[in-house]
Amino acid sequence: MCFQSWIPKIIKKRVCTTFVENASSNGALCQCGGSRDAHGSVALGDYFGTAIVNRWDSAQHSSEYPTDAFGEIQFAGASKRHSYFLRLSWDTPPSMVYTLMTAHWGLPSPNLVVSVVGGEGKTKVKTWVREVIRQGLVKASQSTGAWILTAGLREGVGRCVGEAVRDHATAASSVSLNKVVALGIASWGLVHNREQLVNPQGSFPAKYYISNAAGDSCCLDNNYQAFLLVDDGSVVNKGGETGFRAKLEDYISHQRTGIWGSGSIDIPVLCMLVSGDASMLERVDLSLKNSMPWLVLAGSGGMADFLSDVLENLSSVPVVQSSSEVDGEVAPSVDLKDRMAERVKKYFPLETETDKLVERALSIYQNKDFITIYHGEQEGPNDFDTVLLKALVRASKQRASVDASPYNEELNLAVTWNRVDIAKSELFNGDILWRYRDLEDSMTDALVNDKPQFVRLFTENGLNILDYLTYGRLESLYRSVADGTLLYQLLQRRLVERLGTAGPTYSPSSVQESPSKVAADGMQNGPATDISLFEVSGVLELLLGDVCQPFYFDALDLHMITSKRRALRRVSKLLRGDCFYRDRRCLYPWASLFIWAVLQNRSEMATLFWEMAGESVLSALSGCKILRELSKLEVETETKLSMKELAQRFENLAHDVFGSCYRSNESRSFTLLIRKSPVWGGTTCLQMGMGADARLFFSHDGVQSLLSQIWWGDMKRNTEKRIQEQQQEQEGKPSEDGPGRDSDSLYGTTVFSFSDIKHIEADAQMPTTPRTATIRGVPQPRRPPKRPFIVSRWRQFWFAPVTSFLGNVLMYFLFLLLFAYVLLVDFKPPPPSGPAVTEYVLYFWVFTIVCEEIRETFFVGTKTLRQRFRVYIQDVWNKCDLTAITLFIIGLICRMFEWSYGFGRDVLCVDYMVFTLRLIHIFAIHKQLGPKIIIVGKMMKDVFFFLFFLVIWLMAYGVANQALIYAYDPHLDRIFRRVFYRPYLHIFGQIPVEEMDVGKDWDMPCTDNVTLINDGAEPCRTLYSNWLVVILLVIYLLVTNILLINLLIAMFSSTFSEVQAHSDVYWKFQRYNLIVQYHSRPSLAPPFIILSHINLFIKRVIRKVPSVKIHHFVLQLRGKAANRLTTWETIQKEDFLTAQSKIQKSSDSERLKRMSAKVDGVLKHLSESRDFDHRLRALESEMEYCSSALSWIVDTLAQSSTFKPPRAPPTLRDSFPSSSST
């Protein structure tokens, strides 16, 4: 722990340096408690000082020295957990100590500080006070994430707090976010066995033995997390820590809550008084003057009972304005002073300085609004957190400004403690009309500190997210990201790229201040060196760039810029200016917040924003995509697993919501899959699902139905449509495609046609091309004339993707036959003798294949060139195509020259294998072969693991076998064959027994002559070690043929059983790629595809005819059609969430929760009924007293001779006659 060696340099201790004689000790002891021998010579020599000084003072008579007690403390025999401790002077700055505790000791910043005052010493704590501390204080502190400050000693209330913290920590979950921190602040001189803590170099840890201390000292409690041992130079004087404790409480009360102080309020500090003696009056008075709230436990004894009596029974006494004012304060009346003096004498009869106590009590009475009386014996420990909240709110209302809402402080406290139940019952019950400005800061606090329940509550009660989320506030949210997280690192990397390599570097310590400033300042414009939307866009491009257009480029006015360098210059210039874009509203607020939450892996927050955002299916798939990409970059295993779990959750949501949509309306659900989203960078559900590797989503029947209909094209649809028309003609009904068709049914009631996409998109964009027809059947001015039936059916057949697939399969088989014929029969020598005509045909064929690959890579789709190439290169089969084409070009070049002719032919032979393996991908469309191909691909990974073990064992055996059989053989070719190749053949039973067993005759001529062996002769076998060769052969065959081969079989079986259950899901997922590929391909297959390429070149380049297939699987909806589809999807999502909520409510866990809540309510009513019973008994006793008093008055008046009543006194009549009288 050398990093804490700086502590003695800044933290000091106190040592008494002036001997002030204690009169009661006959000059043997100083008033500090130390003996005369314990003081230095300088102090002893100061006889003049000791003569005139009769009262010891720490500031005057002690000096500071570097502290010699700090580090960690281990309680022997009590606990394995270490606590922190520090010996410090009473005048140490509290800011330094607070930074030490939070930054270096790692204590979590508090959301509440409860300072328990009083209850010290050997007096026994009352039972109900123990219950209030255990069931009330510690439980409430655990739910709010609080610090509890006591003396930290094993006596009185401090011991009760320690035991309660221990019990709650044991019962609470280990992953609880709000843990109670028990902090002990005691006087150094009163700590028993304090010499065990002394070590000038620091103790890590210090062994501390707990014993039953006697006298005025007491041991430290092992249930506390940290101890601050305040040193005033004395060893017996009590109260030396009081001043430092008050200063620390005041300092903490001015710090902000939340992550790095990003909360909306200062840390609330509450002092709780339990019993106490008369000296506590001064402490209470001083803290009340600093507006510190107090909670007094009435009935706990001592000072607590005195204050509760004064504040409750003297509250009706008026405080009049006196003619003389002291320090601007109101002077109390004489009657109030007298009554206060009576109570001081009543509660503190042994105190002599009653006048000072009365003045202190009157000062406290004037600040009574900061004091809350709690009758714990009557009210019980339940809902103690509400008591704390009301005590703090009551005090804060005294400090609040006139313009502020009276409920703001209560709301801020509820948000800080994350107590949404209190907010719902007390603040959002319909009685308060909340304004937007009242919720704005609390909303920021809830977002930054991950409190999704409050975000939902605010949005349901008046906060308009459109007004709240501007681009500037969105940037501030990204600046509040915790350092050390993956998102922070990615944002900083993009920031360094923008600032350039010569820009400033950012250390974690310098960045920690940013979130607090940003959250506090809100909408203030940051400098150009802060994180902006450009860095956020760069991170999203890294994660979603293969399927989406850049985000937030419209806000930064970069949508027309394609060059990254120009964009950097433009953004740098923009951020150095006024940055007016930060005041604009965010275009899609819920989606932006959803992205922000997903990037930070906040599960509940992301789910909430997903529920609020539109385009639920696409949003869920986008969240899945982002999380899976982040999990690939994440290093920590636990975080990576949580990202994968959340990604799977979003994929399940997308699958379930789309299932609800598909059951509601089939045609609209198809539109949902191919609708181009302006929110998510112009992508579609199918494209995002493919990028997110969402296999479960693609396995849905609705997605597969769309893919099947696209695969068969218009052939199947028109056949069914023709049957429907014939039925309608027979029944005399109009066609659904007529002008009167409902606009909701865009794609027919049952069957979806991809050709309709062209008409809808053309109608939406209103081009001047001949293809301007909508699906509604309304004739357009330039629509082409109707073709004959045979021609239209031929076009439907010819342009269907299945036709293109069958043609490509047939021609690919012919290509492989031609390739094999050239290699086996017609492979001529280099020029001028060759190549043959068939080989030239093969070259041309491969050239057309290359042209098609170039077209697919660079001329299909609407993405940028970089995005297209990235998507192309990610596919395994595209890599196979590149390998095959590269090998073919190498073989072609090499075979043209005499010196490399043989090598070129070998390369072409290997290339033929690669082209043949390409058939596997072609047959992936087959329903039976597709899943088996996936299983084979999975098993290939098992083969590689098997080969790893096999190579190790094979090399070990091969080297040993070769060295044992042949003593000397320098030829590398023979060594390689006998070390690797021959042991490999042993696995399949090819064992040369004659060569390996000397007992067998071997007809191979051999020699032992080294010269001949070096010239290439066969060496003879070694005879004396042949027995070991046989043993090794047996062991090798046993391990390989039985162990490793069976291991491989077991791995294959495991993989097969694992994949077989999901093979259909994998196959349906990969089927999408094949359908997209052949849908975009021309109908002609290589080599005739060159005609289609020429036709496309004429259309696109010369005639400038726009492509329709370039937008494959993409539909652009605008206006009412887009709004109608979005509304319908939102309704389906809400129905799905409602159904899920019903299922959750009917679960056993929810039933138990409701039952528990009802039982708690019943217990609460019972406690209230007991309270009513107590009140009724008190009322009965008072009535009995009044009745006896009245009877006494009546008797007195009756016996009096001065007063003659006109009639006799009334007699008491029974309201309920007894049964005996009847």
From TrEMBL:
GO terms for molecular function: calcium-activated cation channel activity; ligand-gated calcium channel activity. It is a multi-pass membrane protein. The chain crosses the membrane at residues 797-822, 882-901, 907-925, 945-968, 1027-1049. Residues 426-700 form the TRPM-like domain. The keyword Transport applies. Keywords: Ion channel, Ion transport, Membrane, Transmembrane, Transmembrane helix, Transport. Residues 812-1063 form the Ion transport domain. GO terms for cellular component: plasma membrane. It is found in: Membrane. InterPro entries: Ion_trans_dom, TRPM, TRPM-like, TRPM_SLOG. It comes from the Eukaryota. Its main location: membrane. Residues 84-315 form the TRPM SLOG domain. Residues 721-742, 1202-1222 are annotated as: Disordered. This is Histidine rich calcium binding protein. It comes from Salarias fasciatus. The lineage of its organism: Eukaryota, Metazoa, Chordata, Craniata, Vertebrata.
